[in-house]
Amino acid sequence: MRIQRRLRLAEDGDGHYAVNAACGATSSRADDCDDHDAAVYPGHPEICDGADNNCNGIADEGVWQLGTSVALTKGTDFPVGNALGTETTPGVAATNEGFAVVATADGTTGAVEAFRLSAAGKLLGSATLATAAGTDCPPSSGKRVAFPTLASDDANLLAGYFQAVPQANSCCAANARWTRSVLGVATPVDLSKPTPLGFDSDADTACTTAVPTGQFATASTDWLPSQSKYVATWVDAHSGTARAWIATVSSQGVLGGVHAVTADESDSTPAGGAFPPSLVTASPTRVFVAFAGVNTLRMVLLDPATLSTLVGPQDLPNSFQASPLAVAYSGGRFFVARSTRGATLEISAIDAATLQELRVASISIGSGALLSPRLVPVGNGVLLVFSRGATRLSFGWAPASFDAVAPEVFPLTDVDLGTSVSGAGAAKLDDQHVGLSWVDGTVKAAVLGCGG
C-alpha cells in the first residue's frame, strides 16, 4: 500500500513528489512544483518552454540569447538620439521572408531607410523610403526624421516617422519656424514601390532652431487581420489642441476614417511635454489604444471595423503624468509599459474586455537610463526588451498570467554591446525567435533566440 501511494504521488515519473505531498514521500522529495510535468523539479535545467523548470519561482530565466549582430549600414549617419533613446530606435516587423527594419538618419542625411532580413538575420536588401526636405541649419542639420515605427501584413509594410524641417526662408533666423509632420510610407516587402502618406502636419511658431517641442508624436501602427487593414494612431495639434487621433490604412497606403480616439477632446489632450505617444495594438476582436491624457495614462477599446469606442476612456491607476512606452496583446490580456520616477519600469496586465488593471510588475532599472522598452508577444506571455545604461541591451520573458509577487517577474539577461546604443526595436518571428534592431551610429540587427 505504501509503494502504491508513492507512485500515485509522483505522477510525472521524475522521482520528485508534489509539494505538500504527505504519505509515502520523504520531505526532501516533496518539492515538485508541477507534478504533471517531468521536466519540472528542483535542479532541472531551465529550458525554453515557458515553465519554471527548476522550481525557483521564475520561468525561462537565462534561456534567451542574443545572436551575432550584422551591420546594415556603414558610417555614422544613424545616431543614438536623445537621452531616452526613442528618437532613433528602429521599427521592426516580421515578414514572409523573415523581418524588416526601418531606421531614420536623424539630423544627418534625413533618410528613412528600410532593410530586408531573413529569419536567420541575413541582410537581403535595402532601400531609401523617403528623405526629409529642407536646408541644413547649423549647428544641427535641418533634415530631422525620427521616431520610426513599422507594421507588416507579411507581404507589405507600413512605416511611420516624424519629420521636422525649418522653413527655408527663416532657417537660422532669430524667429526660425519649423514645419513638423507625422508621415508614413507603405511598400511591398521587397521595397520596390514606396508610397508616401501624411497623417498630419503643422507649423511651430517657437523662436528656436532646435527641434520643435510641440505635442506631436509619430504614428504607432498594427495590422488587423480581421479587417485586412492597418490601424494607426498618432498625436498632433491640427485641431488647435494636441490630441490622439486614429485611422485605418490600406496595404497600399490609403488613409481612411481619420477621427479622434475619444469624443471628448479633453480626454486625449496631453498635459505637456514633447512628443507624447499614442500606442496601438489589437486582440482578435478589439483595438487597444493607450495615450497620455491630461494628467494620467489613458486607455480605450475600439471596434476594429468602425474604430468606434466600446470601453473607456479609462485611466490606468497610479499613472500620474505617465505616457505609454510599449503595448502588446498576449494570453488574452493587454500589456502596457510605463516608467515611473525613481528608475522603475512598470508593466501592467490589463483585462482585454474591461480595461481593469489585473496586476503590475515593477522592474528596477538601476542607475542606467531606460531606453525604448518593447513588449513582444511570445508564446503565452510577453518578452520585454530595452536598453539601459549606455551600452547594454536587456531582455526577459514572463507568462501572461504572471504573479506580481513572484521572485522576479521578468528575469533579465544583460548583454554589453561595448558602445552606446539606442533601444532595440523588436518583432516576433516565432515562439522561440525575435528579430531585433538598434543603432550605434550604424544600424545593427540580430536574432534573439530562446534556447540558443
Quick take:
With 452 residues, this protein is mainly β. It is 2% helix and 47% strand. It has one helix and 29 strands.
Structural commentary:
The protein contains one helix and 29 strands. The protein has one helix at 2-9, and strands at residues 64-66, 70-71, 91-95, 98-104, 111-118, 123-131, 144-152, 156-166, 178-188, 195-204, 217-224, 229-236, 243-249, 255-260, 278-282, 287-292, 296-302, 309-320, 326-330, 333-340, 344-351, 357-364, 370-378, 381-388, 392-399, 413-416, 425-430, 433-439, 443-450. Mean pLDDT is 79; it is low at 1-8, 23-27 and 202-214.
What's the helical proportion of residues?
under 10%
Question: What fraction of the residues are assigned to beta strands by DSSP?
Answer: over 45%
Give the termini separation: 46 Å
Q: What is the N-to-C succession of helices and strands?
A: HEEEEEEEEEEEEEEEEEEEEEEEEEEEEE
Structural class estimated from helices and strands: mainly beta
Characterize the overall form.
globular
Average residue pLDDT: 79
Q: What does the main sheet amount to? A: 5 strands, antiparallel
> What oligomeric state is this?
single chain
Low-confidence stretches: 1-8, 23-27, 202-214
Radius of gyration: 23 Å
**Count of DSSP H/I helices:** 1
Number of strands: 29
